[in-house]
Amino acid sequence: MPDCIGRMSGRLSAASASFWIQRADFVRQYQKVDEFWLPQKDQTLVQVRLYGKKVLTIDHWDYAVNARQTKQERVIVPETETALTSSHQRETTRDVR
To answer: How do residues 32-79 score in pLDDT, each as one tens digit?
Structure first.
C-alpha cells in the first residue's frame, strides 16, 4: 500500500476560468523517487472557445535527490538551488477530435 497519493484529478469550473476556457480537466500522476513522491506526469484537457478541445501533457523525469545532511552539516542553500530537481521536462500539446 503506498504511503502517498499516486494520482490526483479534478476540474476547473467555467466560472473561475477565463472567457476562452470553457472547461479544464486535469490529472497529475506521482512517482516515488527515493523517499519522496514527485510529479511524473501532468495532463490537462481544455475546452477552448472557437478552437475546440486541446490536451497539454507535461512529462517529468530524471529527478536527482541530494544526499541527506545531518543537523551539523546543514548550511543555508541559496534560493537558486533546490534539494529536488528535474533536469528533464517535456511539454506537448495536441488537438482532440
So the answer is: 888 888 999 999 999 988 989 999 999 998 888 876 666 666 555 554
The neighbouring-strand residues paired with 94 are 55
Share of the chain above pLDDT 70, in %: 60
Report the candidate in 27, 48, 25, 44 with the shortest Cα–Cα distance to residue 91: 44
Q: How far apart are CA 57 and CA 25, in angstroms?
A: 12
Query: So where are the chain's domains?
Result: 7-96
DSSP 36-59: EEEEEEEEEEEEETTTEEEEEEEE
Residue 72: all three cell numbers together: 551539523
